[in-house]
Please model this.
Amino acid sequence: MNMTLVSGTVSLIIGIIVTWMTLALPEASIGLPNAPKAFPGGLGILMIFCSVVLLAREFVRLKNEGTGEAASRNPHLPKIAFTCLFGVAYALLFNRIGYVLSTFLFLEAELWLFNGRENWKVNTIVALVFSVCIYLLFAKALGVYLPMTPIIWF
Model:
């Protein structure tokens, strides 16, 4: 199974659905009547365009390589799968344990996955500093609501 073809096809279908659903949006009652349709419609069209380019490039690459079966095995697939799992865990923990702790755990897991266990000190420092600094910037300086971590009171 060629993941590029699968992701290109799924992206194309989503782009078509987004564009089609955008046309069903109601017109604005004030101002420009098609203003609510401009941004999502543009995104849908851009997604369709990028998907078609991706699929065309992959078909050309496969044609030049023959069947392309040997090249379809992605060596990064386990990292992609773990990143998806970490993302789901992050989403499930986000409101329960707060922004700082959930982001720290997510970044720690991602950095461990990509940097390795031997760099655990650097990984931990980066994850901690990033989580706390972004929380302070958004929650305190900009006034954006982020779920509080129960053990952190700043």
Q: What stands out?
A: The chain has a mean pLDDT of 86.
